[in-house]
From TrEMBL:
<protein>
    <submittedName>
        <fullName>Uncharacterized protein</fullName>
    </submittedName>
</protein>
<dbReference type="GO" id="GO:0005813">
    <property type="term" value="C:centrosome"/>
</dbReference>
<feature type="compositionally biased region" description="Low complexity">
    <location>
        <begin position="33"/>
        <end position="42"/>
    </location>
</feature>
<dbReference type="InterPro" id="IPR026099">
    <property type="entry name" value="Odf2-rel"/>
</dbReference>
<keyword id="KW-0963">Cytoplasm</keyword>
<keyword id="KW-0206">Cytoskeleton</keyword>
<keyword id="KW-0175">Coiled coil</keyword>
<comment type="similarity">
    <text>Belongs to the ODF2 family.</text>
</comment>
<feature type="region of interest" description="Disordered">
    <location>
        <begin position="1"/>
        <end position="66"/>
    </location>
</feature>
<dbReference type="GO" id="GO:1902017">
    <property type="term" value="P:regulation of cilium assembly"/>
</dbReference>
<feature type="coiled-coil region">
    <location>
        <begin position="73"/>
        <end position="138"/>
    </location>
</feature>
<feature type="coiled-coil region">
    <location>
        <begin position="173"/>
        <end position="386"/>
    </location>
</feature>
<feature type="compositionally biased region" description="Basic and acidic residues">
    <location>
        <begin position="20"/>
        <end position="32"/>
    </location>
</feature>
Length: 439
């Protein structure tokens, strides 16, 4: 904002030059002294006398001696007031721009306002330059008229001294204008520097916003992953519950088979006992048959023995049939038992395999999700560190820029004071040249 420097208005006519600056020869007295010397001279004569040795008394600009001078003096006073008002306007615009620039987060509307304020400041500065040029033109016009009067009126007296004094004034004016142009160039450099720093600050702000946006995206991604993990866990738990329910159903179906097996085993044991008893009876019957055969051969009573033999054979056939039926039932129950045991073993193996596969898949998915969460946490930590560094860099840059702005403001105030001093000196010398000498 170095270009926002405001040129101080020229001092009013008769204002004394600042202390510490050399006064040229023949320097006019201030307005108060001139006013005090004029009545004393009026008492001695109609017009104030000029004593070149003691000092020159000049009539103030805008007196009734010359209507053109009076009109120029009024215009000059009006321009001085306008320059003061223009300086106040520029100060207000500068303050608004500084308030917006010092904010941490600048919105788009504030950026537009800042651009409008900068354009307005450029226009006001251009207007101020025009007013200053007009005021300097009036001063230069008065200086040229004064130089002509001095050269024309005092040609017969001291032409050499007037010419040398005019050349010295012109050289000093040129020197002062060069200084003013140097100060304006320095102000333009300050403006470029401030623009660069504002661009750098905007870059840091964009980086900070980008890092903050990345952090928010990482947070959203982590939330999504957590939701996905919960969904996967719910699915795995639901599948495990379904497998457990099926396994329980199969177990409930197979629980009755051991009881049936025990019952059949009891029946089989009873049948075996009956078989053994029948075998024992058969052995006894066979022994009796043999004994009867011996008796028959001995006694010859075959009819009775044959009838007993037939009965015994019938009983033996019945026992054999019962035994075959019991063996067939036993074989059937054994086959059912084997098939049931095979089904139970198969179901156990399949259930174990399903549970193992489910556990392996859940473990793999858990490891993958854990690795992804770790990676995202690392990315989040890096983003947070980058955001913290961006914030620290931003604060550092803001502090540095504030320090530079304060330095530039101090330099700008010093430049304004020097410009004001030079303006006062120019106005002082211009007033010296504009005041005509009354002989």
């Amino acid at each position: 904002m170095a270009d926002e420097a405001e040129a101080p208005p020229p001092p009013p006519e008769g204002e004394p030059a600042p202390e510490g600056e050399p006064k040229p020869e023949g320097e006019p007295k201030p307005e108060g002294e001139a006013g005090a010397a004029a009545p004393a001279a009026a008492k001695e004569g109609e017009k104030p006398a000029v004593d070149m040795d003691d000092g020159e008394d000049y009539s103030p600009l805008g007196s009734a001696d010359d209507l053109e001078k009076q009109r120029n003096y009024k215009d000059y006073k009006r321009l001085v007031k306008e320059i003061k008002c223009q300086n106040e306007t520029i100060e207000r615009v500068k303050q608004q721009i500084q308030d917006i620039a010092c904010k941490k987060c600048v919105t788009s509307c504030e950026k537009k306002d800042l651009k409008c304020l900068q354009e307005c400041l450029e226009q006001e500065l251009e207007k101020l330059r025009c007013l200053i040029n007009k005021a300097m033109h009036l001063q230069n016009f008065g200086s040229r008229r004064r130089l002509k009067n001095v050269c024309g009126g005092g040609a017969g007296k001291v032409p050499g001294g007037s010419k040398s004094g005019g050349n010295a004034d012109e050289s000093e004016l040129a020197l002062l204008r060069n200084r003013v142009s140097d100060y304006e160039e320095e102000q333009r450099e300050f403006k470029c520097l401030l623009k660069e720093q504002s661009c750098q600050l905007e870059d840091y702000r964009d980086k900070y916003l980008g890092a903050q946006q990345k952090v928010e995206e990482q947070k959203a991604t982590i939330d999504k992953l957590n939701m996905n993990n919960k969904t996967v866990e719910k699915q795995i738990n639901a599948e495990v519950k379904q497998i457990r329910a099926k396994f329980q159903e199969k177990l409930c179906e197979l629980l009755q088979y051991p009881k049936l097996l025990e019952n059949e085993q009891l029946k089989l044991a009873e049948t075996c006992k009956e078989k053994e008893e029948l075998e024992d009876k058969l052995v006894i019957v066979c022994k009796e048959l043999k004994a009867l055969k011996k008796k028959q051969t001995e006694t010859g009573g075959t009819d009775n023995c044959q009838s007993q033999l037939r009965e015994s054979q019938k009983e033996l056939e019945k026992v054999n049939k019962n035994l075959e039926e019991v063996q067939r039932q036993r074989d059937l129950f054994c086959e059912q038992l084997r098939s049931t045991e095979e089904d139970l073993n198969t179901l156990r193996c399949e259930s174990a395999k399903i549970i193992a596969r489910t556990k392996e898949r859940a473990e793999v998915m858990r490891e993958q999700m854990q690795n992804r969460i770790d990676r995202l946490e690392k990315d989040l930590a890096q983003c947070r560190a980058a955001a913290c560094m961006s914030v620290n860099d931003r604060e550092t840059v803001i502090n540095e820029m504030r320090g530079q702005i304060n330095t530039l403001s101090y330099s700008f105030d010093a430049a304004q004071k020097q410009i004001k001093t030079l303006r006062n000196h120019i106005a002082y010398m211009s007033n010296e040249n504009c005041f005509p000498i009354k002989c």
